[in-house]
Amino acid sequence: MQVPATFEYERADSVPHAIALLERYGPEARIVAGGHSLIPMMKLRLAQPEALIDINGLAGELGRIAVEGGELAVGALVRHAELLESETATDLFPIFRDAERVIADPIVRNRGTVGGSLCQGDPSEDLPAVFAALRATAVIQGPGGLRAVPVREFHRGPYETAVEPNELLVQLRVPVTPGTGSAYEKVERRAGDWPVAAAGAVLTVADGVITQAGIGLTAVGAENFCAPEAERHLIGRPPAAEAFAEAGRIAAGHCEPHADQRGPADYKRHLAAELTRRALTRAAGRI
Amino acid sequence: MRITVTVNGQPHTRDVEPRLLLVHFLRDELDLTGTHWGCDTSNCGVCTVRLDGVPVKSCTVLAVMADGHEVTTVEGLERDGELDAVQKGFVECHGLQCGFCTPGMLLTARWLLDRDPDPDEGRIREAISGQLCRCTGYENIVRSIRWAAEQEARS
């Protein structure tokens, strides 16, 4: 039987209350929402927080999906299942539908949250690659108010993010640009598993050429979950097979995958190239 | 910490440690052993219960998180001594085999049919993809759920 070590448990009744609790308990406190990454780690004693601050009661403040000011706003407490079922989100950005359908399984998706995925910062997490491809902004709240951090600067290393111990991720904001298509491609060993490798692509085309490109990669050791050199290669070119294949090769060249039980490094690098190519092709078809 | 959880319509108040998992609360505190406990890693899905109507894996939910909320376990599926259509389907189509994954399968199947009364095989397989059957008896489980859907469509 796996049982977490002892901890204090507090329930937050507002975002400022959650922040006050974080300040009271200090850096060894953790926010718990879905808990589907944190609680298994606590059971294995890989994480031993001294206090858990439960924000599940804050759905009114943190559980919304809406388009506002030319951006899609996704609250940190939005569950995976809610993002998958949100036509507002998935019609604008089909990459969410592609990715969410292959994140864990339907029961886990009922509980796990978007913000939790970002904050866990697992190097194989799907949503950091998705939001990196989308060039989203993370909105973080602390005692001094709100601050915005690009998702591409949000992850500082494995399990390490820009969120300070007395802060809370409250929202992700995705710019809505006309003429944009998006897609996500993942290879996993079995239903619900972590990716062997996965790639997300977001393309904006105007007057027959690519004006903006976003490529997100996960589980392959890509810095900040993205591939800026490959993105640059695409700008100004027509959306065509040759350019997508070359972007895939460039992206794979800048990955640092590790061999593990999911496969050898060269296989993962091959997947990075191929999945990038496929995601770009599918994204272009959706513009 | 003192919590009150409504399980299958009955409120239960207990003093529990925050680290107690919902699955153990149900099994050890309330003696509701229909909720099984398997892999301990949110993978196998045998511990699935409904929390405020939504299926969750109770090995990854703290009992304190269910305080003030409603839980339905497999014991809560029957109504007035009558088995739920999904329970009947598992009997009719031999969806049971060893029975270990059955409680979670039943609750997930009920949830699926509540949302989609006429799911095709693909939809059923997707819905139960978070539940592992160690007998690999998926064919009959899928048939059982289809049977329940057809039975409910007729009545």
TrEMBL record, chain A:
What the entry lists under SMART domains is as follows: CO_deh_flav_C (SM01092)
Q: Which InterPro entries match?
A: CO_DH_flav_C (IPR005107), CO_DH_flav_C_dom_sf (IPR036683), Diverse_Substr_Oxidored (IPR051312), FAD-bd_PCMH (IPR016166), FAD-bd_PCMH-like_sf (IPR036318), FAD-bd_PCMH_sub1 (IPR016167), FAD-bd_PCMH_sub2 (IPR016169), Mopterin_DH_FAD-bd (IPR002346)
Q: State what protein this is by name.
A: Xanthine dehydrogenase family protein subunit M
Instruction: Look up the domain of life of the source.
Output: Bacteria
Q: Which residues form the FAD-binding PCMH-type domain?
A: 2-179
Q: Which UniProt keywords apply?
A: FAD, Flavoprotein, Oxidoreductase
Q: Does the keyword Repeat apply?
A: no
Q: Which PROSITE patterns match?
A: FAD_PCMH (PS51387)
Q: What's the source species for this entry?
A: Actinomadura luzonensis
Automatic annotation (TrEMBL), chain B:
Q: Does the keyword Iron apply?
A: yes
User: Which key words are in the record?
Assistant: 2Fe-2S, Iron, Iron-sulfur, Metal-binding, Oxidoreductase
Species name: Actinomadura luzonensis
Q: Which residues form the 2Fe-2S ferredoxin-type domain?
A: 1-77
Pfam families reported in the protein's UniProt record = Fer2, Fer2_2
Region forming the signal peptide: none
Q: What's the protein name? A: (2Fe-2S)-binding protein
Q: Which domain of life does the protein's organism represent? A: Bacteria
